Amino acid sequence: MLVDDHEVVRRGIVTAIDASAALTVTGEASSVAEATRRLPAIRPEVLVVDLQLPDGTGIDVMKRARELDPAQRMLVLTSFDDDAALRESRAAGADGLILKSARSQEIVEAIRTVHAGRAIWPTDHVDDGPDLSESDQRIVELIGDGHSNREIADALGIAEKTVKNRVTVILQAFGMQRRTQVAAMVAARRRAGWKPQ
Fold first, then answer.
1. What are the Cα distances from residue 52, in Å, to 4, 25, 145, 158, 161?
2. Which of 87, 109, 178, 191 has its CA at 20 to 30 Å from residue 184's CA atom?
């Protein structure tokens, strides 16, 4: 499913995808509202989203897609070549990011890569997120493993209240509201082969 508000861009990508024997476009949307309305019926194997949409962002669409299917494969297609776009996409659980300036064949290959369960990120961006202490990085990894605050406290030998406080700090550091977003980010990083420093 392709979500982009520029019809010319959408048409070009649809044409390239349909020319590939292995891929088919099952749905299109030009806004967050249209995408969230159509997602439950379409349930695409890969969701391709633009970050800038007239009524919100591709991040909103990806969050909705994750609620419907925690394993949803997602690729961000954007004009913005910056660390903020990369960080937000990763935090939303995207499996990769490719620029609209890429050739149509590269976009098709990126979709196939994501569909195959691999991640694809621009190589010139190394974004490890905010600098966290070693113990906070460990908490992030344990959240990614699905552990509760109590289980994390037991594993690290600290008070549950301390873990709760550190989780609040970690969420603020990543600009997130919920620990499920941290878990999604960790899952995306692991798919990309990212290792904490």
1. 8, 20, 31, 42, 39
2. 109
Q: What is the pLDDT along the chain (197 residues), one digit of tens a residue?
A: 999 999 988 999 999 998 888 899 999 999 999 999 999 999 999 999 999 999 999 999 998 998 898 889 999 998 877 777 888 888 888 989 999 888 888 999 999 999 988 888 876 554 455 667 888 889 999 999 999 999 999 999 999 999 999 999 888 877 777 888 888 888 877 776 655 54
Return the closest-CA partner of residue 50 out of 87, 10, 83.
10
What's the whole-model pTM score? 0.65
Task: Name which of 195, 187, 2, 24 is nearest 95 in CA terms.
Answer: 187
The answer to whether the CB of 74 falls within 8 A of the CB of 113 is no
Q: Of 110, 118, 122, 134, which is closest to residue 49 (Cα–Cα)?
A: 110
